[in-house]
Design goal:
The protein is mostly helical and 283 residues long. It has a domain at 64-182 and 204-282. It is built from eleven helices and no strands. It has helices at residues 2-27, 32-52, 66-85, 87-92, 106-128, 132-138, 157-174, 178-195, 213-219, 237-242, 270-282. Helix 2 (32-52) runs parallel beside helix 8 and helix 3 packs parallel to helix 7 (157-174). It is globular. The termini are far apart.
């Protein structure tokens, strides 16, 4: 019974329950500390679901990577929340501030911000697989050899900043309010958990539209060029339009399918991964 609840209820709970709670709290005036609490709840629920219904039980076993992934997650989530904190200062010098559709219901403003951010992040993500210097920073994320929740924020801070800039710069120029940006940051964290989750959940035909773990595993295939698919963060809409969508419902993944075939000895420690893109640039 509990496994069926996780299989069919986990994604609706995260997308509607957790994100919905963030929307409700922000609309009532609660600030970033509440959003941090919501993210902590999401992480705990993710870990619980991974143990109740794992896609691959061995992916729940740390490979000397738990501390490193925790460090990546803490640093990158802090960067996301910090970007929200500086919005009032940016608004003071933004010549387009005031064009945000504040008359829309709060939930509609959040959904609009998600769609705009999804397009920008998708395009930066795609470019990161095509442009050499961007790939050097993005390759940190592709060094993973197991797929679980914290992988989502296992990114080089430079690349994390590039993706977030691509996603939120248009929103900042439009004058996105701080409460909407706070919810967007929370939704990003929740989506990264879902997208990399080691949970064998099912969403039916929505899996062809939502950027969840079943589709994102194809993005992490280790062979050159094979993983150049499914770049979206929130949705796969842009991948369908760009011709970068790929999915095979019969395909099963193991650790040997993940990582980078061309770089099997990629550094695994946190500070070594931070330094690696600069070392390769200098060589």
């Amino acid at each position: 019974m509990i496994r069926s609840v996780v299989r069919y209820g986990y994604v609706p709970f995260m997308l509607l329950g957790v994100n919905g709670s963030a929307i409700a709290l922000a609309s009532l005036g609660f600030g970033e500390l509440c959003m941090v609490a919501v993210i902590v709840v999401a992480v705990l629920c993710s870990f619980g679901a991974e143990r109740l219904l794992p896609y691959a039980p061995d992916w729940n076993v740390a490979q000397s990577d738990a501390g490193r992934d925790t460090a990546h997650s803490f640093v990158n989530e802090s960067l996301i929340l910090l970007s929200v904190a500086v919005l009032p200062a940016l608004a003071a010098v933004n010549p387009l501030d005031g064009h945000w559709p504040s008359a829309l219901p709060f939930v509609a403003q959040v959904l609009m911000s998600i769609l705009v951010a999804d397009l920008g992040i998708t395009l930066v993500h795609l470019a990161s697989h095509k442009v050499g210097w961007m790939w050097r920073f993005h390759s940190v994320h592709h060094s993973v050899t197991r797929f679980y929740g914290l992988n989502g924020l296992m990114k080089h801070p430079v690349h994390q900043s590039l993706e977030m800039a691509g996603g939120v710069l248009p929103l900042i120029l439009l004058g996105i309010p701080v409460p909407v940006a706070s919810v967007l940051a929370t939704c990003v964290a929740v989506q990264l958990l879902l997208q990399h989750s080691n949970v064998d959940y099912s969403v039916g035909v929505l899996g062809r539209v939502l950027a969840l773990n079943r589709g994102h595993r194809f993005h992490h295939l280790k062979w050159a060029g094979v993983g150049d698919v499914n770049f979206g963060l929130f949705t796969l809409i842009w991948d369908h339009l760009l011709g970068t969508y790929s999915f095979d419902p019969e395909r099963r993944f193991v650790s040997a399918d993940l990582g980078m075939a061309a770089e099997p000895n990629y550094p695994t420690r946190y500070f070594a991964q931070l330094a690696e893109p600069f070392r390769r640039s200098a060589s």
